[in-house]
Amino acid sequence: MTTRVAFLSRHERFRSVPSTNDIVRNWLIAGTAEVCLAVSDEQTAGRGRSGRSWVAPSGAALLLSLGFRPDYLAADRLWRLAAVVSLAMADAAEEVAGLAIGKLRLKWPNDLVVEVGGGLRKIAGVLGETEGVGSADQLAVVGIGVNAGWPRADFPTELADSMTSLSEASGRPIDTDQLLEAFLLRLEPRVLALRDGHFDVAGWHDRQVTTGRLVRLEASGGDAEELRAVGVDGASGALLVEDPADPGTEREVLAGEVVHVRLAEVHGETASGSPASGRLDVTP
Ligand code: BTN
User: Is 20 in the pocket of ligand 1 (CB under 6 A)?
Assistant: First the structure.
């Protein structure tokens, strides 16, 4: 259905699958070239980061996964695949929803969020998974779920304060086919640039919502720290933080070290945070 996507080796649309990440992973393992794309109206076992599930009513979200064979990226740069997916989706979603440029922000590492009343509401999440990292045939799957035409009245109660959708943020109906088309058009040059050794560090930096703000970082064991986010590192993909009581002592946090990143000054902000383990976004 989608045209002008010469960089796609395979593209299939499904009505319902367990997880589009698994579809694409199986294609890669079977030898499919990059970039392959699976899109589904519904997932019955959608995965989020840190072992969380990812749910969306049929047709209310754009659910897709992309498969890569990134022999052009060093193992410690694989995080850039997830970053280009979120950046391309931010650009596409702003255009299709008629939102101002820059309205959608990245909450490190890859959540797409909007600021609402001083808090953050999540619109999209990204799950990166890898196999054979560092080998001659490393594989990467990047899945993204975008809350598209999902009315607030239908949000799950436990997520209603932390999530929103493009239709709620814009007041417009969202056509997921149009969003997919707009996304692919923006993703292609970003992937081609990665193959040429280029990554939009400035664009990635500018989208970050946490820079300059106090954040609460929660580790998988339950330990939490409140630190000031001072930026992101375009080489390692890390979040750069400093102790507010000891400015100037900057250190790096990799996504695998924390399961949640929240704005510390906003109580009740529960937009889900960063991944824990074994995932593409671990680095981050
Ligand atoms: C997160 O924020 O926790 C990441 C959510 C990723 C969800 C997407 S939907 C398409 C793809 N298939 C999955 O099972 N998960 C990702």
Answer: yes
Residue of 22, 144, 162, 279 to test ligand 1 pocket, by largest number of atoms within 8 Å of CB: 144
CA distance 13 to 173: 21
For the CA of 18, the nearest atom of ligand 1: 14
CB of 21 closer than 6 angstroms to any ligand 1 atom: yes
Residue 245, beta-bridge partner list: none
Is 272 close to ligand 1, i.e. is its CB under 6 Å away?
yes
Task: Tell me the domains of the chain and their CATH numbers.
Answer: 10-206 (3.30.930.10), 210-277 (2.30.30.100)
C-alpha angle with apex 224: 261 to 111, nearest 5 degrees?
A: 10
Ligand 1 within 6 A of CB of 70? no
Per-residue pLDDT of the chain (284 residues; tens, 9 = 90+): 544 578 999 999 999 999 999 999 999 999 999 999 999 999 999 999 988 999 999 999 999 999 999 999 999 999 999 999 999 999 999 999 999 999 999 999 999 999 998 899 999 999 999 999 999 999 999 999 999 999 999 999 999 999 999 999 999 999 999 999 999 999 999 999 999 999 999 999 999 999 999 999 998 888 999 999 999 999 999 999 999 999 888 999 998 888 889 998 654 443 333 322 223 432 22
Q: Which ligand 1 atom is nearest residue 43's CA?
A: 14
CA of 124 to the centre of ligand 1 (A): 9
Beta carbons of 227 and 239 less than 8 angstroms apart: no
Pairing of strands 10-17, 36-43: parallel
C-alpha Rg value of the chain to the nearest Å: 18
